[in-house]
TrEMBL record:
Its main location: other. GO terms for biological process: bacterial-type flagellum-dependent swarming motility. Structural component of flagellum, the bacterial motility apparatus. Part of the rod structure of flagellar basal body. The keyword Repeat does not apply. Pfam families: Flg_bb_rod. It is found in: Bacterial flagellum basal body. The keyword Glycoprotein does not apply. This is Flagellar basal body rod protein FlgB. Keywords: Bacterial flagellum, Cell projection, Cilium, Flagellum.
Amino acid sequence: MSISFDNALGIHEKALNFRVKRAEVLANNLANADTPGFKARDLDFKAALNSSLNQFSEPGAMAMAKTNSKHLTTNAESADSLLYRNPTQPSIDGNTVDTQQETAAYMKNAMDYQASFQFLNSKFKGLTRAIKGE
């Protein structure tokens, strides 16, 4: 009997990968805080989570597989696309990055990443104990 990591780990692996992508986007925003005309971007975790849950919750639903890079994306893939952030106070030069807001979002994302990582780590420890028969 083989172990299916998709069933064992569930959506948590995708959540961890999403947190990595979001950290890259937020770090890019912070790096361009002084670039004139730069527009702050972000990823919507709730939309990505809902699209992933809907993909698994529909009975009889089959996920589409891309076998060529020229194929169109599915709805689940487009849900985690970059969105522009609405500025609370845009600057005169057109830059919409608020460094305090970006830093807070980056730190919250880092804590969420750590929590997801610890959860996956405990899942792997449980699987290891089950395999060893402990």
